[in-house]
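note to self: dont lose this again. the chain is below, predicted strucutre after it. 255 aa total, dont forget to put it in the shared folder this time
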Amino acid sequence: MTDYVQEQEMEIEALEAILMEDFREIDCSESGLSTSKRCFQISLSPQDDEADEATTLPVQLALIFSHTDNYPDEPPLLNVRSLRGIQTEDLKVLKEKLEQETTENLGMAMIYTLATSAKEWLSERFGQGNLDENNEEEETEKDDIIIPHGEPVTVDTFLAWRERFEAELALERAKLMPESALTAPKEKKLTGRLWFESGRAVAKGAAPVNEESDDEDDEDVDFDDEDFEDDEEDMLEHYLAEKSDSSSHSSRRAN
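---
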C-alpha cells in the first residue's frame, strides 16, 4: 500500500532544498483553496536563459498548492496569483495549462515540474525579448500618430495666400509669351492683345505688314508707356482662342 503522506513529506523537503527562499508555507485562508491541509506557495519570475538568473522584470507569480489525500495518484489542488504585474486573463490561461499537466503526470511527484512549466510560461509571455518587441510596437504606433502642426486658417491668412497664389499664376501665364516678344526693343514691342491679333491675321491668310513700304504710307505713331503694358489675361484668352481656331481649321481641311 502506498504511503501518500511519506511521499508528500519527501517532496516538500526536496522543494525547500531546491527553491529555498522562493518556497514557503502559508495559511490556508491565504491560499484561495478549499482545504484544511497544509498549503504552500512558490514565487516565480521570468527566466533569463542567457544569464540563467531571474530577470528584474516587473512581473511575479505565486504558484499555490496543497496535497490531496491520494496525491500523487490524484491531482493536487492548485491556484495561481499575481504578485506583480500579471492580468487576471493571463492567470486563467496559466491555471488551465497547469491543471492539464497534472493529469499527464499522475503517479509521480509533479510540483517541481509544474513550477518549471509556469516559469517557462512566464518567460515566453513576459520575457525581456517579448517586452522589447512590445516596446518597439508601441514606439512604432507613436511614430504613426500624425500630429497636426502649422497655423490655423483665418480670413487674413487666406487672403495673403490667395494674393501670393495669384501672383505666381500671373508669372506662369507670362511664360506663355514668346521670348522674342519679351526681348524685343521697346519701340517694337506690342501689347499682348495686338500680338495675338496680328498672329491670328497671319494664320487667316492676311498679307503680312511690309516694313519697307513707301514713306508716304509710313506714319510715325507715338506710344505711351501704357500701350506697352502686357495684359496677361487677354494674352491667355486670345492664345486659347487661336489654338481653338487652328484646331477647327485643321479638322475642316482633313474632312
